[in-house]
Amino acid sequence: MSSISPSFDQTFDQACPPELVEARYSTLMPVLLVAFGQILVGTVATTRTGDTAFAVLTLLSMVTTAARFLIIFAYRRRFRGGNGDAVEARRWQGWYQSGSYAAAALVGAMAFRCFTIGNAELAMLGTTIAFGYASGVVARGAIPPKWVFASITLVTAPLILGCLMHAPEPAYLCLAVLVSVFYIGSFEIIRSNYEATITQIRLKHQYEEMAKYDPLTRLRNRSALPEITHRIAGDERLAVHYLDLDRFKAANDRYGHPAGDMLLKEVANRLNALAAPADIVIRLGGDEFAVVQGNVASRAEVELFAARLVRTIGMPYAIGRDPIHLGASIGFAIAPGDGTTAEALLAQADSRLYASKRAHADVAYIALPPTLAPARDISLSSSIEIEPRV
After folding, report:
1. Are residues 205 and 334 in the same domain?
2. Tally of domains in the chain
3. pLDDT, tens only, 207-234
4. Which residue, among 132, 99, 134, 117, has the nearest Cα to 45 in the 3D structure?
5. 384, 365 in Cβ contact below 8 A?
6. Residue 228 belongs to what domain range?
């Protein structure tokens, strides 16, 4: 029964919501900047020293960058126009993170080699690419903290080790201390950025959920109609019952709007109680409701359910000191014979409701389709318990 919104925290995968994955795959700039720094420093170092290690690291950086680009373009083709679900999101996040780990390891290895080669200028370049990579990763809020910690560790640990290899040189020891302090201090920034991002995504989802529900009754609103159409397209036979409350305006005028709101909530509770798991209860607006009856086997089943709806709505309401008596007028339409979209079924049910209302102004009733309606103008007492109006 789709009527009350599920707890958002039960459905939100905080570890890897699809929006975070989309944020990482949405731009090529971080990958481009890392690749540019690695290849530039590697090329300069190889040219200056002729060192094989620099040449190998530069080549591996090119291969890693190409692989990361291929993964990004594959993601964009796969999810053009959508983010996928949480399961796929975790898989694609893992692939992206594997590339990020590889890039971090190569940056760390190149920085370490810059310090061990014995050239102060190259040490400066190694420090620059290491800090550039680490600061970029720390600043992004779309990466789970444990992954950020691992990435910056792959970069900073070799840098610190390379500095310590020059002990007791004061400048290198000072740099090792500074890198260590920045590394530890980044933990709080990483957590704060990620929590802020997660909060924004959670609020976005909560607002999207709230938009699907009527704020007073917590029933679904008209946003459920596309879901119904989708179910019909899947060859599900369902019925739409259109209900209009009788005497609600009089009760609302007499007892006041707070009592009217309580009445609407109680009507919603009663409809929910009758609805099966495959059914959807919708507040269309004002005192009008719709109940989508799923998995319909026969027309007789639809008529029986409509009668139960009217009888349940017609039971007295204990609002205040005096019992309040409402009634319900109802019309229904069955898919696919009466329509293949939710809007078409609602329009058909609404039309039959008011056609019968004009013909039987003193009763609550079920409106039959024209092809099955009796030729004479009679009340449908055989289908439903009739409640006279006052």
Report:
1. no
2. 2
3. 888 889 999 999 999 999 999 999 999 9
4. 117
5. yes
6. 222-367
